Amino acid sequence: MRLFLALMPPPALRERLGELADTAHARCGGRRMPDESLHLTLAFLGDVEEASAAELVEWVQGLTIPPGEWHLDCWGGFRRPGIVWVGAQAADPALVRLQGQLWGTLEPLGFGTRPAKFVPHVTLLRRAATLQLEDLPPIELPWSYNQLELIESTTDERGVRYRSLAISQG
Ligand code: ATP
Ligand code: MG
């Protein structure tokens, strides 16, 4: 099973992010992420055996994370996959700490590898035709969170779908 840990936006923020995805799509083209898939990845675990996935479900269900507020204030792009995202100009210490703590548990257990660099972002478009983001409107969005989710990523003929397997305490 292909798994990752993520923050899922609360409904009102999801809607705002969806509007930003529409705006970006009109400007940059590509494939717009559906509203229900919008998320912030904290840890990508990759392929995990079913037995290990069951352990992860238990762990996440018992987990409490420190509540925080992340401030989205910029557009960004990853050139090679043509990704357009929204995120923050400055590294957010609370998110960096959270990501570090998660990997502090996951890595010794053999769940994937801690990435060399953590760039918190919400992907809005993939395979964009252009990454010229200069004329896009300014962003000022707070994201209050107190829970993370364990998500399974599956692919079918309609594309990638995410399914929540577990939610932390909160
Ligand atoms: P697709 O790959 O088909 O475009 P997707 O990227 O939405 O779809 P996944 O590849 O399953 O679906 O990725 C799930 C989440 O994990 C996404 O947020 C993605 O950016 C992230 N992710 C995927 N691969 C990695 C990786 N090697 N390192 C870090 N994060 C990753
Ligand atoms: Mg991917």
Put simply, the count of helices is 3
Indicate the low-confidence ranges by residue numbers.
Answer: none
- Percentage of residues in DSSP E strands: 25-35%
Which strand order does the major sheet show? 3-1-9-10
- Give the CATH architecture: Alpha-Beta Complex
Along the chain, the helix and strand elements come as EHEEHEEEHEEEE
Oligomer: single chain
CATH superfamily: Cyclic phosphodiesterase
Overall 3D geometry? Answer: globular
CATH class reads Alpha Beta
Determine the structural class based on helices, strands and strand pairing. alpha+beta
Overall residue-averaged pLDDT value = 96
User: Which small compounds were modeled alongside the protein?
Assistant: adenosine-5'-triphosphate, magnesium ion
Task: Give the CATH topology.
Answer: Cyclic Phosphodiesterase, Chain: A
Description:
With 170 residues, the protein is α+β, with helices and mostly antiparallel strands. It has one domain (2-167): Cyclic Phosphodiesterase, Chain: A. The protein is built from three helices and ten strands, in the order βαββαβββαββββ. It has helices spanning 11-28, 50-62, 93-106, and strands at 2-7, 31-32, 40-47, 68-72, 74-78, 83-87, 121-126, 141-145, 149-156, 159-167. A four-stranded antiparallel beta sheet has the order 3-1-9-10. It has a four-stranded antiparallel beta sheet with strand order 2-7-6-5, covered by helices on one side. A two-stranded antiparallel sheet has the order 4-8. β9 (149-156) and β10 (159-167) form a beta hairpin. The protein starts with a strand and ends with a strand. Adenosine-5'-triphosphate (ATP) binds at residues 2, 4, 41, 44, 115, 123, 126, 153, 160. Belongs to the 2H phosphoesterase superfamily. ThpR family. A motif (HXTX 1) lies at residues 39-42. The active site is at residues 39, 121. This is RNA 2',3'-cyclic phosphodiesterase.
